[in-house]
Amino acid sequence: MHIAQRGASQVVCQVLAGRNLSQTLSTALQMMPGQTMPELTPQQRGALQDLSYGTLRFYGQLVRVLDQLLHKPVQDSQLRCLLLVALYQLLHTQAAPHAVVDHAVRAVRKCNAAAGGLTNAVLRNFLRNREALVAAATTSEEGRYAYPQWWIAAVRAQYGRHAEAILLAGNQHPPMTLRVNCRYISTTDYLALLAQQGIQASRIEPDAVLLKHPLPVNKLPGFFDGLVSVQDAGAQYAARLLDVQDGMRVLDACAAPGGKSTHLLELAQLDLLALDKNSHRLELVRENLQRLQLHARLQNGDAAQPDSWWDGRPFHRILADVPCSASGVVRRHPDIKWLRRPGDINGFAQQQLPILCSLWRLLERNGKLLYVTCSIFAQENQEVINEFLTQHDDGKQLPLSMPNLNEGQLFPNHQHDGFFYALLQKQA
User: Fold this and answer.
1) Is 203's pLDDT higher than 90?
2) List 13, 81, 254, 374, catalytic entry
3) What is the rounded distance in angstroms from the CA atom of residue 180 to the CA atom of residue 199?
């Protein structure tokens, strides 16, 4: 356990210094003998990932508990992060408390021999006074909800009485949802296939199956034969809202890793161009197409600069899944809560509007464009659409009929992440 604690503390330290969690964790999991840590067993790899994600998910609470336990600030960032990791285990996992403490002391002594006694004292003090310390931490909103104060204030200002549910949903473990490939098998038949293998699941959308317990993809029947893909149920709204039909010329303007592109191709026979400015991520689209035995044209290019890649032929449909704060998917990426700054939201909005305007001229008359973000902040969502419509009198926002959408906003809950959708039609 101490190896996972030590590795997670290193990951958390780097994320709090500004690094991306996924990239940092990937590096930590690939460490080999002779580096700062030994080669990890599968169990240690799983524990390292859980401790890293969990500590960052509840960082706002953990840091307020820790600050009560320390008589003076700890200057050693590695020690501070390791104490946070251990507190996460004591508060949010089923690990035996004495084992957590003992292993944390061992982990600390590997890098700071003199701090073993402090670690032992702090963690045992927490065990003696747990209820009072947690209660005191929750007197601040950051300690209660585990988000930065500016984030909490923004959500409350927008959503009022719904704010608490939205914030708490972002601290849950993310659900694992499958998208059944309707070209190969019905959702009912795939559920039966899962049941035959003892895998518990339920249908929550036409093609969406929610697993009771997450599984590696190699345990999913038919995954490598293209029967299913892993895709959040909220993300599955996109393909259906775009209203594609056989023979249409379609652009997926920010396509990687390809979940929405492949869903569109499962629903209709399309001439689809999958565009992405990141050539490495575009390879993920290619891999998904190959696994599902689907075809699309791939193009490395910037959606905001279509003159460099567009052939001049208008599209019947455009999917614009634009860069955003990702505030609707923080349970999958808890580092976002601590890496984002208040000014970032306006920064994303300033990127989104030019992309939308650039893509609009590629759309044929009567064609439809679906604007998508995985954000819960109106500044990136409806406010961008409102500004766009003031600049384009040939645009009309269409009503959306999919369930659970609140004026285009899908709130995160136990079944799906948070998304925003706006369907625009170009007037003839």
Assistant:
1) yes
2) 374
3) 15
